[in-house]
Write a structure and sequence with these properties.
Blueprint (H helix, E strand, L loop, with lengths): L9 E8 H10 L9 H13 L7 E3 L13 E8 L3 H11 L2 H4 L8 E4 L9 E8 L2 E3 L12 E3 H9 L8 H14 L4 E19 L7 E17 L2 H10 L12 E5 L1
Antiparallel strand pairs: 1-3, 1-4, 2-3, 5-9, 5-10, 6-7, 8-9
Helix pairs in contact: 1-2
Length: about 260
């Protein structure tokens, strides 16, 4: 029996103060003009909850930059093994006062996700992902270990300008292959809802913690799925899908089909 089977997974909804998020960014010496909302929220959650930081998470209404919120709160959904009261106690005990005030604690809410998902259950879903591949060997246009957009990787591998590669189909094929490797669920339909190139921020682990800005595909899918194994599906739900899950990607939001 897996660890996820023995504990309750909670969906948390919290509202974060956009001005205080910007203040945190300044405290961390981040280049705010180039830093996306996902990274600021990642930093806030890490500062609030340390090793118990919820992941995966999803920044809702994420088409605006942090500077465009003009003090409005940012809504964040996430999965956690803890309910909101436990998370608040963690933040109350260990976060700085400035960071603690980022969360509107009067509006935070949580609910326990089902402990069991019936085999054969059909669900609708929405999923924001970062569809990338890490190259296993050197190529003409890439280096071993380099992380590349799956669409760009396919174009480079074909290396023929006369062959048209459809970006949307490439992303759907990537997600279909991912689900084919999961024992607990079958993907029954999928479409691309939104696509953009996301500027992502990364800090190294050296003392000066320099920030590096990279670009990655940002693709939101919708569709339907069918559960084959409820325990495996629950674990997938809690684990998230794809890379960069602690930076706002990979949260599988489900609804009745």
């Amino acid at each position: 029996m897996s660890e996820v089977e023995t504990k309750t997974v909670h969906m948390i909804q919290m509202w974060l103060d956009s001005r205080r998020l910007m203040q945190l960014g300044k405290m961390l010496h981040l280049p705010l003009k180039n830093v996306g909302n996902n990274y600021l929220v990642h930093c806030a959650l890490s500062e609030l909850f340390q090793d118990q930081s919820p992941s995966p998470f999803s920044v809702e209404d994420n088409h605006r930059q942090i500077v465009d919120y003009n003090g409005q709160a940012i809504r964040v959904l996430c999965y956690s093994e803890f309910d909101w009261e436990t998370l608040q106690n963690l933040a109350r005990g260990f976060a700085s006062p400035t960071v603690y005030e980022i969360v509107d604690w009067d509006r935070i809410a949580s609910k326990p996700m089902p402990n069991e998902f019936s085999d054969g259950m059909e669900l609708g879903f929405e999923l924001r992902t970062c569809p990338v591949v890490r190259k296993a060997s050197d190529g003409l246009k890439w280096k071993k270990g380099q992380e590349i957009d799956v669409f760009l990787s396919k174009v480079w591998e074909i290396d023929d300008e006369s062959v048209e590669v459809d970006r949307e189909n490439t992303y759907k094929e990537w997600l279909i292959r991912y689900f084919e490797k999961q024992d607990g669920v079958n993907l029954t339909s999928v479409k691309v809802k939104r696509f953009s190139i996301e500027r992502m921020s990364r800090r190294n682990h050296k003392p000066n913690r320099k920030v590096k800005i990279i670009q990655r595909p940002d693709v939101t899918f919708t569709g339907t799925l069918k559960i084959q194994n409820g325990d495996e599906f629950k674990e997938l739900l809690y684990r998230g899908i794809g890379r960069h899950k602690s930076f706002g990607f990979g949260m599988l939001k489900i609804r009745r089909a």
